[in-house]
Amino acid sequence: QVQLVESGGGSVQPGGSLKLSCSATGYNYRSYCLGWVRQGPGEEREAVAGISSIGDTDYADSVKGRFTVSKDDAKNTLYLQMNSLKPEDTAMYYCAAARQNLNCPRTSTGYDYWGQGTQVTVS
């Protein structure tokens, strides 16, 4: 299995930036897609960003151009750089992994492993 632990959440004002980190461990996790899924109050879970095992990235339209997903395999860490934050970005953000090595899931149900979540509040 893959173990995921998020960090870096917090409270920022609109227009600000925040960087989330996810420590990833487990057997053959580098062959998986790694991504970020969020869920705001009263909202559906949304897969916002993902990066494949070969480094291809994908973003939800709601965050495209503002968020950047990356990973550092040497540090076993996944990142989500969030810029130009909006109040509607307020959500619990989860690091997630999927047993895919090409495309990342575009829906939250496509992910197989989950971190505990880190809260991001934009106000």
- The poorly predicted ranges are none
Report the principal-axis shape. Answer: globular
**Strands, count:** 11
> How far apart, in Å, are the first and last alpha carbons?
36 Å
Rounded mean pLDDT is: 94
Q: What structural category arises from helix and sheet content?
A: mainly beta
Q: Round the Cα radius of gyration to an integer and report it.
A: 13 Å
| Percent of residues in helices | under 10%
Main beta sheet: strand number and arrangement?
7 strands, mixed
Percent of sequence in beta strands? over 45%
- Tally of individual helices: 0
Question: What is the succession of H and E elements?
Answer: EEEEEEEEEEE
Give an overview in words.
By secondary structure, the protein is an all-beta fold. The chain is built from no helices and eleven strands. Strands 2, 4, 5, 6, 9, 10 and 11 form a seven-stranded mixed β-sheet that branches. It starts with a strand and ends with a strand.
Task: Tell me the layout of helices and strands.
Layout: E1 2-7, E2 10-12, E3 18-26, E4 33-39, E5 46-51, E6 57-59, E7 67-72, E8 77-82, E9 91-98, E10 113-114, E11 118-122
Parallel strand pairs: 2-11
Antiparallel strand pairs: 1-3, 3-8, 4-5, 4-9, 5-6, 7-8, 9-10, 9-11
Summarize the structure.
The chain has strands spanning 2-7, 10-12, 18-26, 33-39, 46-51, 57-59, 67-72, 77-82, 91-98, 113-114, 118-122. With 123 residues, the chain is an all-beta fold.
